[in-house]
Amino acid sequence: MTTLTGKVVIVTGAGSGIGVGIAEVIAERGGAVAVLDRDAASAERVAEKLQTGGGEAISVACDVSDEGQVAEAVAQVHERFGRIDGLVNNAGVNFVKPFDEMSIAEWDRVISIDLRGTFLCTHACMPHFFANGSGSVVNIASVHTQACLPGAASYDAAKWGVLGMTKALAVEYASRGIRFNCLSPGLIDTKIWQDIQAAAVDQEACLAHWRANIPAGRVGTPREMGQVAAFLLSDDASYVTGANLLADGGMTSQLISREHA
User: Fold this and answer.
1) Cα-based angle 82, 85, 89 (whole degrees, multiple of 5)
2) Which of 121, 125, 130, 233 has its C-alpha lying 20 to 30 A from 102's C-alpha?
3) Which of 95, 119, 129, 155 is catalytic?
4) Contact, 159 vs 185, CB < 8 A?
């Protein structure tokens, strides 16, 4: 089993959804976790749960789009643990709206959280990686880096930007022992999936549609994303950098969409 013993990892957006699954697996694999989320209560709740389970964790309230808050959060993590070995840029927002109806403010909000936030957190951690002579960054992208849906221009632009930055940094800093990879989830059992079902006129038809269009026949779980992230953070992935690892149940490998049976 992949071990993260002795490693300190920051996970952004870890107060809910995929971030919780990632934080749980890191703690279970022996890593110390800094649970960052703009919702302080949610971050604290997750950190307390990890501690109750025997893990080492702290919670830090942080809006990843705010440069000052990011700098303070990273400093707080380093002060507590004395080092930072890994970063999972998971914080993000989903947004769907026709491009011609989208306001500049709506566009800027998605880019500022999903792309700027990834930049700010990574930039703030770099001095600590340099001091270690190593580091691993896992950026949560999306299957939208492979194919798109209508109304997702801002989200897709942000996630493609994250992928491009990941590859550029992987090349730039490989010689300094710092690895950068993307994890691109498919449809995962989070609030987004719950919202999709809630908005469906016929929930059974909705479930049947998605089962038909995910070769694995089901949505993924946050813990499954955590297991992939833990591998990328670990020394087991020492020769993996610049990759975009798709964890989507085969969704992007299917040539065309299918009607449910």
Assistant:
1) 120
2) 121
3) 155
4) no
Mean pLDDT over 204-230 rounds to 91
Q: Please, what is the end-to-end C-alpha distance for the chain in angstroms?
A: 39
Under a CB-based contact definition with an 8 Å cutoff, are residues 90 and 13 in contact?
yes
The count of structural domains within the chain is: 1
Q: How far apart are CA 111 and CA 118, in angstroms?
A: 10
Nearest alpha-carbon partner for 38 in 60, 71, 61, 11: 61
| 208 occurs within a structural domain | yes
Separation CA 116–CA 124 (nearest Å)? 12
Q: Is residue 70 part of a domain?
A: yes
Instruction: Report yes or no on 237 lying in a domain.
Output: yes
Q: What is the CATH number of the domain that holds 160?
A: 3.40.50.720
Instruction: Check: CB of residue 9 under 8 Å from CB of residue 88.
Output: yes
Residue 94 CA to residue 223 CA, distance in Å, equals: 20
Contact 36, 73 (CB under 8 A): yes
**pLDDT tens track for 3-42:** 999 999 999 999 999 999 999 999 999 999 999 999 999 9
Instruction: Provide the H-helix boundaries in the chain.
Output: 17-28, 40-52, 67-81, 104-111, 117-132, 153-173, 191-199, 203-213, 222-233
- Where in the sequence is the domain holding 67, given as residue range(s)? 8-249
- Residue recorded with tokens 């709506």: 106
Does the annotation mark 155 as catalytic? yes
- Residue 258 resides in a domain: no
**pLDDT bracket for residue 218 (50, 70, 90):** very high
